[in-house]
Write a structure and sequence with these properties.
Blueprint (H helix, E strand, L loop, with lengths): L1 E3 L4 H12 L5 E5 L2 E4 L2 E2 L2 E2 L2 E4 L2 E8 L6 H32 L1 H10 L5 H27 L3 E7 L5 E7 L7
Helix pairs in contact: 2-4
Length: 170
């Protein structure tokens, strides 16, 4: 988690955006990986499929915001954390539903004409996993992902999260 030092909520968001890019307050990155051993007699002998997930988001650091600013920064940081944890949960579900063990077993059980055909089957499975992960991201961004902060006349802040649409997913 990245501590962001800011005196105002606007400064907090600007610094978080600079750190994570665009209008992002965090980043969760699924990193699917397929590792396989040798190919012999038409068989893939070993196939390991994994999907580690890296997670980072803006947290309230030092700084000297006023009381309303402190509340707003804390609220925005809580939204950022919750959003990135939702990404992580979505990616974990997509990976679980993909059923890596079954996919690996199915590929290893199959007999291929040559290594090129085996590579093609592995690349197809990898593409399916990447699509499932992208779909998880897009599903979340249909509901949330953009945080808007508006200062009210009384000095408090109105904080709203809106759908991000198809942005921020790759």
């Amino acid at each position: 988690m990245t501590k962001i030092s800011a005196d105002t909520v606007e400064d907090f968001m600007d610094k978080a955006n600079a750190k994570f890019g665009g209008s992002n307050l965090g980043e969760t990155d699924a990193k699917p990986s397929f590792k396989y051993g040798s190919f012999k007699d038409g068989k893939v002998l070993k196939l390991e499929i994994s999907c580690p997930i890296d997670l980072d988001y803006a947290e309230m650091g030092s700084g000297k915001p006023d009381d309303e600013g402190k509340k707003a920064i804390a609220a925005v940081a809580d939204i950022a954390k919750a959003h990135e944890l939702s990404h992580k949960a979505g990616y974990e579900k997509a990976f679980k539903d993909f059923d890596a063990k079954k996919t690996a077993k199915d590929i290893m059980d199959k007999t291929f004409k040559n290594k090129g055909e085996a590579d093609k089957a592995i690349h197809q499975a990898f593409s399916e996993l990447k699509k499932a992960l992208l779909d998880a991201c897009l599903a979340l961004h249909k509901k949330e992902g953009i945080v808007e902060v508006t200062k009210q006349a009384n000095g408090s802040y109105k904080i709203v999260q809106k759908p991000a649409g198809a942005t921020g997913c790759s």
